[in-house]
Design brief:
The chain has helices at about 70-85, 115-120, 125-145, 205-210, 215-230, 240-250, 255-260, 265-275, 285-305, 335-340, 340-410; strands at about 25, 30-40, 40-50, 55-60, 90-95, 105-110, 110-115, 150, 160, 170-175, 180, 410, 425-430, 435-445, 450-455, 475-480, 485. The chain has about 500 residues and is an alpha+beta fold. The strands form 6 sheets. A 6-stranded antiparallel sheet has the order 1-2-3-4-6-5, covered by helices on one side. A 3-stranded antiparallel sheet has the order 7-9-10. α8 (about 265-275) packs antiparallel against α9 (about 285-305).
Amino acid sequence: MKTMVSTAGTGPSVTECGDALVPGAMAGPWRVEHELGRGGMGAVYAVVHEEIGKRAALKVVHRQLMPGFNCDRMLLEAKVVNQVGHPNIVDIFETGRLADGRPYIVMERLSGQSLAMRADESKLLPDFVIAVLRQVCDALIAAHAAGIIHRDLKLDNVFLMDNPEDPMAPRAKLLDWGIAKVIHHEVKHTIEGQLMGTPQYLSPEQARGQVVSPQTDVYSLGVMAYELFLEQLPFEAETAAEVMAMHLRATPRPPSELWPDVPPDLEQLILAMLAKAADRRPTMTEVAERLEAVRGELQRRCRVRSGPRLPTPAPVAPGRPWTPSQPGRVASATGLAATGLAATDALSRRSEIRRWQYAIGALALALCGLMFAISRAGDRAASAATVTEAAGVTASATAEQLNEVARTAPRERPEGDDATAPATALRPAIAVERPVIRPAVLRTSRGERAAETPRVQRGVAPRVPPRSAPAVPRRGSKVDPDGTLDVY
């Protein structure tokens, strides 16, 4: 029986089902709001307590199944759930009967979606799958310890509660204990002669109609793990009879063919859980321990991809059975080669080599830039020295040319001068462009300035110091009787 698959109704509408409870109908103190889901044996409704306002979910059996239905089975489900009392099992807190005699149970209302719906929406990451399977294992370990076998494990019966704080860490609830088997209990099957379970998840002993045991739940959980990790069922056919025949005789396809990088421990675990003989399957406690080992292996792979390479576990001799004290070993050298560890290590080495190549290339570029800057600085220093030397030579040559012109140029007499004028009063008759000579200043090592070869500034006449007035008049003069000097 599928109890709850979603917070929205997914089964037939109210008008299509003559036994459906309409909104507003009463089931004891509980008032029906709307339908949540519908399965092969019953339907689930959202209800609210009429007096205290508590919200819950109510499951009731279909009316057409009532002939021959053992009503004690509904009461047994409530007893089973409360007997186990595990946080990963849905809580049931009330039972009763409708006016037409159909039994019902009232359980906690969950907000979220079934694992089947989540798997249909998108691919589930391995860490997410392991987290969900570990919670299911914990619930089944507690149930097996109480002598209870679920017998109907499937994705529809695992409900994922909403977790706004961390969507990747949901809280799983195991539902639908309606056909659970209580060991050494007198209650018989719900419907005489009907096969208990879902064909796609049925164990070989269930298909044969043999006595079930806790290993039956291990097989069904192995089918769930195969479906979640590899996104397909181990056995698929057109009819339920063909599927059950495959559970009895066929060998499932190895997980490594569908997932080349599957951890070898996970592949061995899934194949061991799907063993045809119940005594060859691991216990539920061993399944939980080996799932934790697989989680550690996946975490190590993530660290290898993002950090230094970790040592690879050494292979052991093939054929040795797995023990909980060896959670991380590899079954054989062939299994180790089949894993994705070698490919991951090769990718890590190639990435490291590329990083070194990039670093060496960047260093070479930096050295080339530094050498270019040093060479340019040397060229500028050499150019400055050459210009300074050339300026000194030009200034010296210009001064000599000026002196030569002054010596050889004809001199003119001022107007009114007589022949007796001194020769020192003569000036050169030609105009010569005289460069301005300024001392070049160089900075010493201590910041002091030193005058060196003068620099020439072309096109500017030099500044000539003024001449002092002669002590003797340049013309003849006489002294007047009044004592003044009269030039004549």
